[in-house]
Amino acid sequence: MNRQLRVAAIHDISCFGRCSLTVALPIISAVGVECSVIPTAVLSTHTGGFTGYTYRDLTEDIVPIVDHWKTLDLRFDAFYSGFLGSFEQIDLVADIYDDMGGDALVVVDPVMADNGKLYTVFPENFPKGMAKLCSKADVIIPNMTEAAFMLGEEYVKGPYDREYIDGLLERLSRIGAGKAILTGVYFEEGKLGAASIDFDTGETSLVMRDAVSGYYHGTGDVFGSAAVAAMVRGHCVAGATEIAVDFTVGSLKRSYAAGTDKRFGVNFEEGLGDLMDAIHV
Ligand code: PXL
Asked: What span, in angstroms and rounded, lies between the C-alpha atoms of 111 and 151?
């Protein structure tokens, strides 16, 4: 009897705006993988571009949820965390990885910054906390800003050259994770992609596609969820990077063509069939 694969996704629920759990759940489920959740907060919308959003912190619920799970003898094939609202949440998630990580694939997306700026909800030293959590991960998925900040470096604006990207990938090994997927890589205007590195073998990969203009919210979570879905279903980090880039670019293209408000997230839903094909579900 084949046991169905199971992931625990640890993110907030932004009720509107297609990011975090409203993205991770459908994408991971679509590839035939059970997706359990630890919701860290409930917001009426994400924090990117909306004002007046509600924020109900669920930090107090994290330990009781995990304690109950422990009584059920559950096995998880992967853990996937993203946006975390405080140092306390970072520490609690680190404890979960220490406690329950075991043989599971631990994926950390250190969601906290983009385009050279830390999200306004975070204190300046937040990247230090995220770097500590990333040290426990098998795979980390930072964008260019998050990678630089976790390394204590200045953000460098693109387009990049190969030397900078290769150097950054190499320096990311200092964080202590097993592998990294770096998003927001580009060498010329009009292109965008991601790079991956396996720190054990030193093997790197690069996937570049035509860029879609404009900054759409939640694309990091669409990318991360697709990468987790692919890796849990057995794809290597380089293969998962390519699958996630194509899925994200397709979602961006649909939203651009529809003229969707960039704060509303991207239309990944109509690409789920393609994702299933790419992952060979
Ligand atoms: O997409 C990442 C994300 C997740 N959750 C919340 C956010 C953001 C990014 O701004 O605000 C609440």
From this structure: 15
Exposure of 124 by Cβ count < 10 A (0-12 exposed, 13-18 middle, 19+ buried)? exposed
For ligand 1, the distance from its centroid to the CA atom of residue 249, given in whole angstroms, is 19
Q: What is the pLDDT of residue 1?
A: 67
46 C-alpha vs ligand 1 centroid, how far in Å? 5
Can you tell me which atom of ligand 1 is nearest the CA of 23?
1
pLDDT along the chain (281 residues), means of 10: 93 98 98 98 96 97 98 97 98 97 97 96 97 98 98 98 98 98 97 97 97 94 98 98 98 97 98 97 74
Which pLDDT score is estimated for 178? 97
Secondary structure of 106-146 in HEC code, one letter for each residue:
EEECCCCEECCEECCCCCCCHHHHHHHHHCCCCEECCEHHH
How long is the chain? Answer: 281
Q: Residues lining ligand 1, CB < 6 A?
A: 12, 14, 19-20, 43, 46-48, 83, 111, 119, 218, 220-221
Side chain identity at residue 124, one-letter code: E
Neighbours of 270 (CB within 10 A): 10
Say which residue the tokens 């230090």 belong to.
128
The pLDDT value given to residue 123? 97
Give me the domains of the chain, ranges plus CATH numbers.
6-262 (3.40.1190.20)
Q: By three-state DSSP, how is residue 102 classified?
A: coil
Ligand 1 closest atom vs CA 41: 12
Residue 76 contacts residue 4 (beta carbons within 8 Å): no
Element (H, E) at 186: none
Supply the pLDDT for residue 281: 74
